[in-house]
Specification:
single chain, alpha+beta, Immunoglobulin-like, 2 domains, 7-stranded mixed sheet
Length: about 170
């Protein structure tokens, strides 16, 4: 996964370098052919900045599914159940939260920018996906009888095949 993201980053960086080189070459030709032109330099800088902004700005999303272990299916809250899907950084700080009322398993989810707590999360931020399910509606403070699960590995913004199994009872 990390190798694929690194490859995308290198490709984007190469496109930006090529575009900046062409923009600067155009500005240099303009200066050499006539009196120095501030507008040509400004245009070259603006073109580079626009390209960099376009490469850095990616839509945040995480997609996947959630199932519940068969030994816990009979312990899942029936009616008034709330499930929280929480994306936390390595330090355990929540970066995004999605709330699903009365989930029907298997649950598919897509965490989008609307679910972000921290706006404009960098695309290379590793995240841990945790799921909490209860009947009291509070997140972050599990009570006795609440159900939990977590993805075993770190995920990254853009990952699409995240699978979490709710496999623990508090």
């Amino acid at each position: 996964m990390a190798g694929r993201q690194e490859e995308r980053r290198r490709c984007a960086a190469g496109r930006v370098r090529r575009a900046l080189t062409l923009a600067w070459a155009g500005a240099a030709n303009s200066i050499r052919d006539s009196a120095p032109s501030r507008s040509a330099l400004v245009l070259a800088l603006l073109a580079g900045a626009a390209l960099l902004a376009g490469c850095a700005k990616r839509e945040f999303y995480l997609c996947g599914s959630i199932t519940i272990a068969s030994v816990l299916q009979h312990k899942a809250p029936q009616g008034n159940a709330v499930m929280f899907i929480i994306a936390k950084n390595r330090g355990g700080v929540p970066m995004a939260v999605q709330r699903i009322v009365n989930p029907q398993f298997p649950v598919t989810f897509t965490i989008t920018p609307a679910d972000l707590i921290v706006p404009e999360l960098p695309a290379d931020t590793p995240l841990r996906i945790e799921v909490e399910m209860n009947s009291h509606g509070a997140v972050g403070k599990p009570l006795r009888g609440d159900l939990e699960g977590a993805h075993p590995n770190l995920v990254y913004p853009g990952d699409r095949r995240i699978h979490v199994v709710i496999d623990r009872q508090v």
